[in-house]
Amino acid sequence: MGNVLVWIVWFLAAGGCIGSGVAVVSVTNPFYSALALIGNLASLAVLYLLLAAEFLAAAQVLVYAGAVMVMFLFVVAYLGGRADAPWAGGPPLLRTAAVVAAAALLVEVVVVLGLAWGDNLQDPPQISDSFGSPAEIGELFLTDHLLAFEITSIVLLVAAIGGVVLGTTPEKDAE
Amino acid sequence: MDGPDVGWYLIVAALMFGIGALGVMLRRSPLIVLLSLEIMLNAANLTLIAFSRQHGSLDGQIFALSVMAVAAAEVAIGLGLIVAMARRRIVLDVDQASALRG
């Protein structure tokens, strides 16, 4: 019974992911595009929960659907109508090539998956209740992955400085 | 494991990656290109988390968190670039911003 429920939740979340992903790419108005991406990120968080990644699901909603998307919406609002660039109007050859390239990527991944499915992708090990909890992730970050943790902070600092530098008007342009 | 096998999650991730790649190649607005990039990064994250579950090890989740931080940094810089372009009255079209083309 619980099994059926998990499948239903999975179907809803996966459908939400794919549907809102298509919406992000196909809608002309960037504002609706950004809103669709919020839906995409939220349904992705549900998939993370099903995979026992509680902390990541929370971080996804807070960092992505919260902070990053607010930044996006601010920029869309700031740019106004200028942000509405149309679909690629170039030669149809380019468009066909893009679709073929994306389809090739997809087929590649699905074939590799199909080959690995039988042996490697079934019967994952039993995990404890605390798998993916903030406590375990935090402990790993401060023991095995301390270097990655520290480098992440430097990356964010550099990005913040870069944002400020890009945002300031250069002296010669300012009048 | 209750519910779908890990492979089903990987298929969703592959579809999302394909959609994101299509968006990057087809759209001309740099904003939507950035949004499509986010979709691709998140597809990779979903794969990492699915394999982390498959192997019962948390390392994949740690990696996914680092990807999230890098994605946030990338958005900050990308949006800064777009705003700087708009201020200099450069047309917001990735096909026309070709000053660096060799």
Blueprint of the fold:
The complex is a heterodimer of chains A (175) and B (102).
Chain A: H1 2-26, H2 30-50, H3 54-79, H4 92-120, H5 134-142, H6 146-167
Chain B: H1 6-26, H2 30-55, H3 59-87
Topology of chain B as a string of helices (H) and strands (E) = HHH
The biggest beta sheet of chain A, please?
Answer: none
Biggest interface found: A-B, 92 and 74 residues
Radius of gyration of chain B: 17 Å
- What about the largest sheet of chain B? none
Question: Which structural class do the helices and strands of chain A define?
Answer: mainly alpha
Please report the distance between the alpha carbons of the first and last residues of chain B.
Answer: 52 Å
Mean pLDDT of chain B: 86
Q: What's the total count of β strands of chain A?
A: 0
How many β strands of chain B by DSSP?
Answer: 0
Radius of gyration of chain A: 21 Å
**Distance linking N and C termini of chain A:** 69 Å
Assembly state of the chains shown: heterodimer
Note poorly predicted spans of chain B. Answer: none
Task: Name the helix and strand elements of chain A from N-terminus to C-terminus, one letter apiece.
Answer: HHHHHH
Shape of chain B: elongated
User: Low-confidence runs of chain A (pLDDT<50, min 5 residues)?
Assistant: none
> Helix/strand/pairing class of chain B, anyone?
mainly alpha
Instruction: Return the average pLDDT of chain A rounded to an integer.
Output: 84
- Quickly count the helices of chain A: 6
Fraction in beta strands of chain A: under 5%
Structure keywords:
heterodimer; A: 175 residues; mainly alpha; 75% helix; B: 102 residues
Structure in a nutshell:
The complex is a heterodimer of chains A (175) and B (102). With 175 residues, chain A is an all-alpha fold. Chain A has six helices and no strands.
